[in-house]
Amino acid sequence: MKRGFDLSYLTEEWRKVLDLTLDHLQLTLLAIGLALLIAAPLGMAAARFRWLTFPVLGLLSALYTVPSLAFLVFLIPSLGIGREPTLVALVAYAQIFVVRNIVAGLRGVDPPTLEAAAGIGMTPWQVFRRVRLPLALPVILAGVRTALTTTIGLATLAATIDAGGLGTLLFDGIARAYNAMILAGAIAIAALAIAIDLVMRLLERLTPLARAERARAG
Amino acid sequence: MVLLGPSGCGKTTLLKLVNRLYEPTSGTIAINGVDTRSLPAPALRRRIGYVIQQTGLFPHMRVGENVAVVPRLVGWDKRRIAARVDELLNLVGLPAEEYRKRYPAQLSGGQQQRVGLARALAAEPSTLLMDEPFGALDAITRSRLQDELRRIHGLLGQTVIFVTHDVEEAVRLADRIVVMRDGRVVQDDTPLRILSHPADDFVRDLVGASDVLRRLSLIPVRDAFQSGTPDLTESCPPVAASVDLRAALNLLLDCGAPRLVVVDADARPIGTLDLEAIQRASNVDAGDHETVGAADAAPSRR
Hints:
heterodimer; A: mainly alpha; 10 helices; 83% helix; B: alpha/beta; 6-stranded mixed beta sheet; 4-stranded mixed beta sheet; 16% strand; globular
């Protein structure tokens, strides 16, 4: 067996690696999509009502400290193996990043700006939609970016309960002591995480506030 | 109208009651005889311009978009909004071509406050509320913006309710000053009456009523000079009848002559002004100047 930096699997089986990468991406995006559906109302409520902030963020960070493998195993009796328990775990872990940044973003908007918005005649919804949300958006997107890259890493564990993704290459590779396979998986995961990170950073740069800040600097 | 008083006296609260950022616990507030609660609060506020000290500009919107916010809310068509934005930016001294596309963070504090004023005026409100709008600016910028505000007010003639704790500013801008303390109105009068006849010790301390110079700045030469055909051999430059006595006194002391020649608007000599006349005017009961004060601060309302 070859040791060291063996790229043979990546070059010869690139189709399989690509398929698994897309599968991994799909799993990640699905998880983050679902996570946002839950985090948006939760984050808005936690930002709006001070008494909710601490319990919500406390609970979510406690959840995040549960070891991921233990969490997955814990879900097997009720949800079995495969995609469903994996999604549940990924959604749960992503919450803290997204909710925390939604709260920080919405809370971080300068109060006089919001008062001016109301004072010149915006309805509460218009204040939220036209002022508060756009000003919070860069912070919220940064939270989504962290959640995405974290989820890409965590989603490798999906392979342990037969839910596919790039983790397959890692765990199969370990089981078969097939280093080239492990290396292919590791490279693909890292590349995916970096690509997603770049895309999200680009999105952050496109927000109106980021444009305004660039205009000032340039 | 200027609301004047120390911090915490309730002047900002009173202002926010007008546009219902605060709701009154009792009583009613009417604008032009209409109860402010007869409209939904956002609709009411779109008819009232609002300028605050921190500018409250939206940092993610360009200057033009900031000014366009209220006209958009009330549903003007695009062309009308674009024309109005340019008109207002030019009015507040920011050439539209140059400033429309900038972001607030690219402007100085004074320029931002000009944009704040343009935004407040955008949808042609009948009333303008200004909460210490110039409080965070340096003295030179502040006095320039005060002049601009006077000029714009002269052009448009809205009712302006202006909150400040700065007596100089109040005296400069007001037709009417309402002095507040601990949530109560302690005096409601013309600037000259406030300075010359403070209602109590509190107002006296607040306005520094002993300041003769400040009082002189509110009396025009026209009310103090002796008419007659002046001796034109005076070496000092002549003074216009419309100039205030403070400036005239400056001139008199500066050039060292015993008296100044007073000229009318057409530069015809109509009389003289000496130190004694200035002194007399500053000591005269302000009641005699009531008409003058009122005429000088010609109410452009309402």
